[in-house]
Design brief:
9% helix; 310 residues; mainly beta; 18 strands; 2 helices
Length: 310
């Protein structure tokens, strides 16, 4: 399965024998990417109008705010993972719709609302896949997280009507049992926020009989409530190259993954209210604030206007 959103796979090699495969990326050629950023404008290696270090400081700081703000929202996540045959036609599918919400105690929960039986036969998802989908596909590069990466300025590029700065992001050191993002991010020149991330999760595990592979992915964001660029659409597409071993034959699996994030609603506000010198923020019952619609001039066009529907 999976994405540049990292998904772990189980592949049946011989009846009665199940081997674990996961999704990720390494120096070895474990996956061949399909074109994901088609339609972007030409990349111009022009120097930015402000210092690169300042841009990085500002957009990573806003990523920290974005990550904190996301804890105040509920939304719906729809996942579709397909394997494709030699003619590019789907021959297996996993599909799931999940609502991310808060219970009466204010604890974040996930509720599966639709999940037909999987028809995947070449690969199967594991619990790690779900963790990757929830936490790693919508790549976030906070101030603290940026310390783990080498971030290099590449140039300016236009995505539809949005002018962006493009940065290369690579992990400085890959520690055992840790996963990292490797690829590019596009930062809105006006908002100084990441609007697109295109890359892969690394490293891939390439042990014989135990291969963890992931497909490259691209995640688009859209401005929500006129403030935060939240993820709205992820697509992963590539051919995973499994090497033979332990009674299994080498095999190439064409995997395509799509994730949509919809129905963002603010559940609670981080704004503190003071009256008479006292903090009365938590007085009374909590209410769910409906998100305001951004003005048409703020609506981005980086996201496909009609994401694939089930």
């Amino acid at each position: 399965m999976s994405q540049a959103s990292p998904l772990r796979l189980l592949r049946c090699a011989v009846p009665g024998i199940v081997l674990l495969w996961t999704t990720a990326l390494s120096a070895q050629v474990s996956a061949t990417s399909m074109p994901l950023d088609a339609g972007f404008g030409r990349l111009h290696p022009n120097p930015p109008s402000i210092p690169v270090a300042q841009i990085i400081k500002e957009f990573t700081a806003k990523e920290s705010l974005f990550q904190a703000a996301l804890n105040d929202y509920t939304w719906t996540r729809t996942v579709k993972v397909e394997t494709l045959d030699s003619e590019g036609k789907p021959n297996g599918e996993y599909y799931q719709v999940v609502n991310i919400y808060y219970d009466r105690q204010g604890q974040r929960k996930e509720r599966v609302t639709y999940a037909p039986e999987s028809t995947l036969t070449e690969v199967m998802m594991t619990e790690q896949d779900f963790s990757d989908i929830a936490h790693r596909l919508p790549f976030v590069l906070t101030t603290e997280g940026a310390r783990q990466y080498n971030i290099s300025y590449l140039g300016e590029q236009r995505i539809d009507k949005i002018h962006t700065w493009v940065f290369s992001v690579k992990p400085k050191v890959i520690e055992k049992h840790h996963r990292y993002f490797q690829g590019r991010v596009w930062v809105d020149e006006r908002e100084h926020q990441i609007v697109v991330a295109d890359g892969k999760n690394v490293p891939d595990v390439m042990k014989r009989g135990h291969q963890n592979l992931s497909v490259p992915f691209i995640t688009y964001r859209q401005m929500i409530d006129g403030q935060y660029w939240f993820p709205v659409y992820t697509k992963g597409d590539g051919i995973l190259h499994f090497e033979g071993g332990n009674y299994s034959m080498s095999q190439n699996v064409h995997l395509r993954e799509e994730v949509t994030y919809t129905n963002y609603h603010r559940f609670r506000s981080s704004i503190q209210v003071f009256y008479g010198g006292k903090n009365i923020t938590n007085n009374g019952s909590k209410t769910k604030n409906q998100p305001s619609s951004a003005p048409p001039s703020q609506q981005p066009t980086t996201v496909p206007q009609s994401p694939p529907q089930k």
